Amino acid sequence: MSILPTWCPGCGDFGIWLSLKNALSGLGINPDGGVVVYGVGCHGNMYDWMDMYGVAALHGRTLPVAQGIKLVNRALPVIVVSGDGDGLGEGGNHFLHAAKRNPDITVLIHDNQVYGLTTGQASPTAKAGFKTKSTPEGVVDESINPLTLAITAGATFVARAFSGDPTGLTEIMKAALTHKGFAVVDILQPCVTFDRVHTYQWYRERLYQVAQQDTRIQAIEKALEWGDKIPIGIFYKEDKPTSEDREPVITDQIPDLQELLSEFI
User: Fold this and answer.
1) Which cofactor does the UniProt annotation name (predicted)?
2) Which listed site, 11, 28, 109, 187, has its alpha carbon 20 to 30 Å from 144?
3) Dmax of the chain from CA atoms?
């Protein structure tokens, strides 16, 4: 077995992998103290390289699995590691409804504008004009903005980070992991094999730190910035009851098995 994950040398996934391990360690979350649900894509290879309970979900189906786990054990930190294609393409409908329900889950989106595992087709976040294997003349559709989508759908923690800044990414992950509610971190990551435009240098010349916005409208306006200047940081945060808080059948008391059986037998 390889000592390191089988990502391309220089892949942004390495920075995300390192940052997640540092964030979990910094918060004192042990390998048996949480669970990670992985989607299908290059990011999913992290499953084999995290010393933590994990579930490999079907393509686009990380969030239903994660919400089920959270309902069973509310005290367990549940983390979703997903891609821009996996989470916003195949899993886009799940993303919308999870955000509005506000489960206490942390979602880490590996956002590189391509389907890297299937050799570089355009993903839902690919910007207009971006040339890929599936769009040789350039993308003609409007791209999905993970931040504005999350904010308008009801997510209570919305941030953007950069895989080339493990220190900053670690701190944002820690903030997301400690937030009670649906926390979304859109992580900009270069794909060194299939995207020769959005390189580490390209991002570093444009990224700047943004302060947390006071209202959803202000956060949406800031999240729409893209081009010569691209903001990163925590855009929006609020405290609201989670879906687990509102679920009437959840109780902290351990049910009596015989009492339960008597209702059906």
Assistant:
1) Mg(2+); thiamine diphosphate; [4Fe-4S] cluster
2) 11
3) 68
Q: What is the pTM of this model?
A: 0.92
Place of tokens 């959803």: 216
List the chain domain ranges.
13-262
Residue 182: CB atoms within 10 A of its CB come to: 29
Which one has a higher pLDDT value, 2 or 85?
Answer: 85
Decide if 81 contacts 46 (C-beta within 8 A). yes
Q: pLDDT for 210-230, tens place per residue?
A: 999 999 999 999 999 999 999
Looking at the chain, the whole-number percentage of residues with pLDDT higher than 70 is 97
Q: Please state the separation of Cα 114 from the chain's center in Å.
A: 16
Report the share of the chain in percent with pLDDT over 90: 80
Listing DSSP states for 149-215 in one string gives HHHHHT-SEEEEEETT-HHHHHHHHHHHHHSSS-EEEEEE---TTT-SSS-HHHHHTTEEE-PPPSS
Confidence of residue 5 (pLDDT cuts 50, 70, 90): confident
Helix axes 166-178 and 13-26, enclosed angle (nearest 10): 50
Burial class (CB in 10 A: 0-12, 13-18, 19+), 208: exposed
Instruction: Extract the tokens encoding 58.
Output: 């079907």
What CATH code is assigned to 13-262? Answer: 3.40.50.970
pLDDT higher than 80, residue 249? no
Bridge partner residues of 109 (DSSP): 82, 186
At CA 176, angle to CA 172 and CA 177, rounded to 5?
Answer: 115
